[in-house]
Amino acid sequence: MFTLLSRYWWVLVARGVMAIALGVFAFVWPQQTITALVLVFGAIALVDGTFAFVASIAGHRLSPYWWVLLLQGLLGIAVGVLTLFNPAITAAALLIYIAVWAMGMGVLQVIAAVRLRRDISGEWWLALGGLASVAFGILLLRNPAEGALAVLWLIGGFALVCGVMLTIGGFDIRRLRRRLAA
């Protein structure tokens, strides 16, 4: 791993700089940043939903509960399409979409965990993740406008911290590589 990272240390630095830029944009131009995040979220929900839908159809003979994955796929596709066909939606509307998606996915995840408890151990992690998803959705629905700004600040803060760490790490690896080569 060190050989790979030391050879391409600059990739870490570039990723760090891009993350720092995202963090700065989130705080300096929040409206434009939210618009970009709307498009990214829509694309992710659509692709995730499509994969889940295809997997459910392809594996419908493997389990009588294939419909849970099908519903997850249809929900993801619906939220993705709604988001992408209306990119001018407000941040509050996006948060409502995300909240509904999170709650729907969470409920379906709990159902899957209950069904899996006969087959595997540790299924409670899946159920706990589903409950966390539902709780997240409920919290977002309580005040979507404030939630949008809070989420944007969290993303911006995370991007800044992560970007600084990646940049420092990249330069540290470069420095170590040069020291080992000498």
Task: Provide key terms for this protein.
mainly alpha; 182 residues; 7 helices; single chain; globular
Description:
The chain is mainly alpha-helical. It has one domain. The protein contains 7 helices and no strands.
Number of domains: 1
Continuous helix count: 7
Beta-strand proportion: under 5%
Helix content: over 70%
Order of helices and strands: HHHHHHH
| Mean pLDDT level | 84
What is the radius of gyration computed over CA atoms, rounded to a whole number of angstroms?
Answer: 20 Å
- Catalogue the unreliable spans: none
In short:
The protein has 182 residues and is mainly α.
What secondary-structure arrangement, pairings included, does this model have?
Blueprint: H1 2-7, H2 9-28, H3 30-58, H4 66-84, H5 91-116, H6 124-142, H7 144-181
Helix pairs in contact: 2-3, 2-7, 3-4, 4-5, 5-6, 5-7
